[in-house]
Design a protein that fits this description.
Elements (H helix, E strand, L loop, with lengths): L26 H14 L6 E5 L5 H8 L4 E6 L2 H13 L6 E5 L2 H7 L4 E6 L11 H6 L4 E11 L11 E7 L2 E6 L1
Parallel strand pairs: 1-2, 1-4, 2-3, 4-5
Antiparallel strand pairs: 5-7, 6-7
């Protein structure tokens, strides 16, 4: 995995993912996503929420591109431990909050809003189709927040009232909401 752009550009890292229940966003898909985001978000000082954060590839890319602060949420301990080491190594610990816990509980209890929300849930997550409603019915949303959910071809959010667009990069689909 690599950081594509920004202050940390070119750095590579390899999470010890053997037996991890995570599926990181590929570099090709992440690069395509951030090319779209670059045209929609002025990263400077913005806040991000990374739900089902896994290897934190999107969190780190966001901070590298000038994002002000990111909150990473995942319940898998080994992933959080690895991400903690990584953000310490990259000297960005003051810009990233690591949250241990269930994403749906976090959403329900959240009292902070974000400029950009990215969710990369397990593709077979039973409540995946409800995720946009959970997010938009919470206090996570600002008036101009952008929400992106990564999913596979078996999921579609086209009928959601806040749905804008869906982009496909290999096995990864990104649905955009605002």
């Amino acid at each position: 995995m690599r950081i594509i752009s920004g202050t940390l550009r070119g750095r590579r890292y390899s999470p010890p993912m053997k037996k991890w229940p995570t599926r990181p966003t590929t570099d090709i898909a992440k690069e395509a996503l951030f090319n779209i985001l670059q045209n929609r978000i002025d990263f400077d000082g913005k806040t991000m929420l990374d739900l089902f954060g896994g290897t934190a590839t999107n969190t780190i890319e966001f901070i590298s591109r000038g994002g002000g602060h990111a909150t990473y949420v995942d319940r898998f301990g080994p992933a959080r431990s690895y991400v903690k080491q990584l953000i310490d190594e990259y000297n960005i610990a003051d810009q990233v909050a690591l949250v241990k816990g269930d994403v749906f509980k976090f959403i329900k209890q959240a009292d902070t809003s974000f400029d950009y929300i990215f969710a990369d849930p397990p593709y077979a997550l039973p409540r995946l189709s409800d995720l946009p409603n959970f997010i938009f019915d919470s206090s996570l949303i600002k008036s101009n927040s952008l929400v992106v959910i990564e999913h596979d071809q078996n999921n579609s959010f086209n009928s959601h009232p806040r749905f804008e667009d869906c982009r496909n990069y290999g096995q990864s689909f990104f649905s955009f909401f605002s």
